[in-house]
Design a protein that fits this description.
This protein is α+β, with helices and mostly antiparallel strands and 253 residues long. The chain has helices at 2-6, 17-26, 42-46, 74-79, 84-104, 130-137, 162-172, 203-210, 241-252; strands at 109-119, 143-149, 154-159, 176-177, 180-189. The protein is built from 9 helices and 5 strands, in the order H-H-H-H-H-E-H-E-E-H-E-E-H-H. Strand 4 (176-177) and strand 5 (180-189) form a beta hairpin. The protein is elongated and about 130 Å long.
């Protein structure tokens, strides 16, 4: 190990980019101003502080001793053992993944290698262009196509491999693009047996079964049926004499 360090090599392997992106997504990047607040007043907790508003410490009750967040120390945080903060972050991530899994089981399937992105917030949205999207998303894998809906501030990016899509989602979700934060997730494929403008499965079979018993009403000609009186020249056409004689003989039989 000392020889490797002397040669400028590390014993740690290369980090998985997907794992790094997920850790960055889980991280809370918002500032925590409560760290700069004054410490708790121990005399106030015992009911013995007589300074009142002049006390430089906070007059708040400490955490419950049974609360896991009350048992923190630097050593556990450094080595990642019995770390209540890490357990809370991982638990929040598990609940989030379970909610996403439950939504996916609600009749929709994920697209194989397509992601969906949109700008957070309300319109008007920045103008989305294909070069802007490719410039932000090309580093995660080969892009097959980009479909943009500029009026809605959203787009669909299709990759050749699902791994590239997953890496792009983990890396670009909540990141900034054109001055606005992005919301990136898996695109949803339509239900099986259903197209964008076609009937649902079951309705097509039911209509086919009813077609054998229901008479089809003829369609009206373009412009509707005219109600004008028929000219007299076309009201009746008398058949020839031999045709009328044959029809009369058939009626008598």
């Amino acid at each position: 190990q000392e020889r490797a360090l002397a040669q400028g090599k590390t014993m740690v392997g290369e980090a998985n980019p997907l794992a790094v992106a997920k850790l960055e997504e889980m991280a809370n990047m918002e500032p925590r101003y409560e760290r700069n607040m004054a410490k708790l007043c121990s005399f106030f907790a015992r009911g013995e502080c007589n300074r009142g508003a002049n006390c430089p410490f906070r007059h708040e009750m400490p955490r419950d001793r049974n609360d896991p967040m009350a048992k923190q120390n630097t050593k556990n945080r450094f080595y990642g053992t019995s770390d209540p903060v890490a357990n809370r972050i991982l638990g929040r991530q598990r609940r989030k993944e379970e909610e996403v899994k439950k939504e996916d089981e609600d009749g929709y399937d994920k697209a194989r290698a397509t992601l969906y992105l949109r700008f957070q917030g309300d319109a008007p949205y920045p103008t989305l262009t294909e070069p802007d999207i490719r410039d932000k998303f090309y580093s995660f894998g080969e892009i097959v196509s980009v479909r943009i809906q500029a009026d809605k501030g959203q787009a669909f990016v299709e990759y050749t491999q699902p791994d590239a899509t997953e890496l792009a989602i983990a890396s670009m979700n909540r990141k900034e693009m054109l001055g606005r934060n992005l919301y990136v997730k898996w695109a949803r494929a339509p239900k099986r047996g259903e197209t964008a403008a076609g009937p649902k499965r079951g309705e097509e079979d039911a209509s086919a079964q009813q077609g054998a018993h229901v008479a089809v009403k003829p369609m009206a000609p373009p412009g509707g049926i005219s109600k004008a009186p028929i000219p007299k020249a076309f009201t009746a056409v008398r058949p020839p004499a031999h045709v009328a004689a044959i029809a009369a003989a058939r009626r008598q039989k």
